[in-house]
């Protein structure tokens, strides 16, 4: 379920759809026999052969790929495990039972107050660009779905003048000039695309609990089995599954990011959850 608060975010629906279709492509890349590129990419990102880790990873991608994003009505919300919000935490209220915690009046979730969009800080003390996944901090009650997740896109990520491309494909339906894009900025620029972030968070909704490593260099350095449970690894694999030109440019040296971009990446890195 995509909450109506997300309609204010340009390209949000497209980004959600792209994250899902990237997962479908990732799934087919893993299960297709004799896919040398798939083997290479899988080994590079998960640090284990496709033959040993592919089954679990493909199941998670199949799960994400089966999602059907619809805008939220009360009926839709009641039947959705995964709920995406762009309300900057409007629904969270201080918990009466637990000081320092907040509760979600619409979803019955609880979370530490420190993780809210409006209070989270990065290592430099800046307000966080938090994309929070908030799952139950308590046992589900009878009748509640134990798999329920809410995902929140904070205003801070979108509105301080930082342009966030929503999808890897441009609005004309043509492939972005990804090769030049990557050569100029390094692969971590992918992390600034909205659909990448959505894919990262959707991975957490399946059997991908970990945030062991963020960013390209750390992701490829991460060893299995952590890599098989690391959300950024899934986001990179999904993104690179739908970017066919990656192969020609995989050896290109990443450029040094600008100071501004580096600062932004650090914020995202600190607060992707
Ligand atoms: Zn995460």
From TrEMBL:
Residues annotated as domain Lysine-specific metallo-endopeptidase: 197-238
Residue ranges the record marks as coiled coil: none
Record Pfam families: Aspzincin_M35 (PF14521)
SUPFAM superfamilies, alphabetized: Metalloproteases ('zincins'), catalytic domain (SSF55486)
GO MF, any single term: metalloendopeptidase activity
Listed InterPro entries: Lys_MEP (IPR029463), MetalloPept_cat_dom_sf (IPR024079)
Protein name: Lysine-specific metallo-endopeptidase domain-containing protein
Species this chain originates from: Cyphellophora attinorum
């Amino acid at each position: 379920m995509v909450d109506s608060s997300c309609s204010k975010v340009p390209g949000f629906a497209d980004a959600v759809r792209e994250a899902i279709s990237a997962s479908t492509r990732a799934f087919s890349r893993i299960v297709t026999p004799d896919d040398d590129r798939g083997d290479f990419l899988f080994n590079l990102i998960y640090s284990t052969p496709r033959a040993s880790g592919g089954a679990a990873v493909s199941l998670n991608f199949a799960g994400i790929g089966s999602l059907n994003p619809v805008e939220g009505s009360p009926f839709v919300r009641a039947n959705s495990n995964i709920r995406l919000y762009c309300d900057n935490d409007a629904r969270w209220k201080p918990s009466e039972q637990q000081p320092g915690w907040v509760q979600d009046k619409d979803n019955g979730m609880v979370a530490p107050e420190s993780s809210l969009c409006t209070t989270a800080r990065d290592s430099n003390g800046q307000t966080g660009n938090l994309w929070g996944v908030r799952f139950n901090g308590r046992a589900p009650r009878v009748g509640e779905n134990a798999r329920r997740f809410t995902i929140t896109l904070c205003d801070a990520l979108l509105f301080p003048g930082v342009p966030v491309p929503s999808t890897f494909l441009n609005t004309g339906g043509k492939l972005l000039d990804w090769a030049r894009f990557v050569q100029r900025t390094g692969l971590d620029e992918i992390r600034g695309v909205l659909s990448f972030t959505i894919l990262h968070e959707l991975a957490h909704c399946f059997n991908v609990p970990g945030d062991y490593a963020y960013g390209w260099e750390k992701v490829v350095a991460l060893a299995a089995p952590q890599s098989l449970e690391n959300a950024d690894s899934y986001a990179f694999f999904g993104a690179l599954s739908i970017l066919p030109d990656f192969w020609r440019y995989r050896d290109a040296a990443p450029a040094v990011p600008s100071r501004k971009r580096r600062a932004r990446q650090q914020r995202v890195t600190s607060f992707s959850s």
